[in-house]
C-alpha cells in the first residue's frame, strides 16, 4: 500500500470507490497531450466486489492505495534503487495473493529506472 490521496480526478474516483491500482502501462498514450500530462503512462484499475467497501474505507480514512502484485513489484524494485539497503520502509508489504501471474513489466538488474 502507498499512503497519500491521489490528485488526478479519475484516479481519486476509482480509489474512493474501492478499486485496486492494477497495472501501469508504459507508453500507453504517446500523443503530445499524453506525454505532457503523464509522460505517456496510464494505469488500469480493477474492482473486486467483495473488497470494494473495505478498500474504499481504507483509502478515505488513511490514504492507503491498494496495489496489485505487479505494481508492488515495480514499487519495491524502484525503491530498492533509491533507498539504502537496510533502511526501514524500503519495501511495500507483501502482495495480496490474488494474482499468481508475473508482473507485466519485467525489471532486471540491467534495467534503467
From TrEMBL:
<dbReference type="InterPro" id="IPR038917">
    <property type="entry name" value="Malonyl_CoA_deC"/>
</dbReference>
<feature type="compositionally biased region" description="Pro residues">
    <location>
        <begin position="94"/>
        <end position="103"/>
    </location>
</feature>
<dbReference type="InterPro" id="IPR007956">
    <property type="entry name" value="Malonyl_CoA_deC_C"/>
</dbReference>
<dbReference type="Pfam" id="PF05292">
    <property type="entry name" value="MCD"/>
</dbReference>
<feature type="domain" description="Malonyl-CoA decarboxylase C-terminal">
    <location>
        <begin position="10"/>
        <end position="47"/>
    </location>
</feature>
<feature type="region of interest" description="Disordered">
    <location>
        <begin position="85"/>
        <end position="113"/>
    </location>
</feature>
<protein>
    <recommendedName>
        <fullName>Malonyl-CoA decarboxylase C-terminal domain-containing protein</fullName>
    </recommendedName>
</protein>
<dbReference type="GO" id="GO:0005782">
    <property type="term" value="C:peroxisomal matrix"/>
</dbReference>
<dbReference type="GO" id="GO:0050080">
    <property type="term" value="F:malonyl-CoA decarboxylase activity"/>
</dbReference>
<dbReference type="InterPro" id="IPR042303">
    <property type="entry name" value="Malonyl_CoA_deC_C_sf"/>
</dbReference>
<dbReference type="GO" id="GO:0006085">
    <property type="term" value="P:acetyl-CoA biosynthetic process"/>
</dbReference>
<dbReference type="GO" id="GO:0006633">
    <property type="term" value="P:fatty acid biosynthetic process"/>
</dbReference>
<dbReference type="GO" id="GO:0005759">
    <property type="term" value="C:mitochondrial matrix"/>
</dbReference>
<dbReference type="GO" id="GO:2001294">
    <property type="term" value="P:malonyl-CoA catabolic process"/>
</dbReference>
